[in-house]
Amino acid sequence: MKKLHEIRVKSDIFCSNINQKIEESILYVEPKILDLTKSRLFNQQKDSFGNDMPEYSSKWKAIKGLTYWNLYQTGQLFNQMFLSISRFVYTISSRSSHLRSLKSFWDYDFENRFFAISEKDSPKAKQLSLKGFAAKYKSQVLK
To answer: Which pLDDT tens digit goes with each residue over 3-32?
Structure first.
């Protein structure tokens, strides 16, 4: 009976700060959520709405010697992606120095269309977040 009481107390403490725990849970699975976006961009070459990504400007393509767009040519754009959370607004972006240049090349709602979780990937992102929440609950309440 004592063990059950301890679990309840820990659970109450955990739930008393539920908003922070949800945000921590999502950040816990950040790499996997970012992989959904990276995979969509690299493998499907689609924005978050399922549209083909725009090409680099002709000037940029000439500098890079590209005949097609390939955002992995910028490397650090993807390697420096991160997820941030503020009051249940989740934002994916990059710390890359190329980000500003890429935004200027495209007359495009860059942040929302480029980095956002696609509707197709949304169920997977939710599933990953729930697994993160369950892992956090288990580690803080059931251990």
So the answer is: 899 999 999 999 999 999 988 888 889 999
Three-state secondary structure readout of the chain: CHHHHHHHHHHHHHHHCHHHHHHHHHHHCHHHHHHHHHHHHHHHCECCCCCECCCCCHHHHHHHCCCCCCHHHHCHHHHCEEEEEECCEEEEEECCCCHHHHHHHCCCCHHHHHHCCCCCCHHHHHHHHHHHHHHHHHHHHCC
CA end-to-end distance (rounded Å), the chain: 16
Q: Does this model's pTM top 0.90? A: no
Domain boundaries, the chain: 2-141
CA 124 from chain centre, in angstroms, equals: 12
Exposure string over 71-82, b if 16+ CB within 10 A, otherwise e:
beebeebbeebe
Contact 117, 33 (CB under 8 A): yes
Question: When comparing pLDDT for 128 and 1, which is higher?
Answer: 128
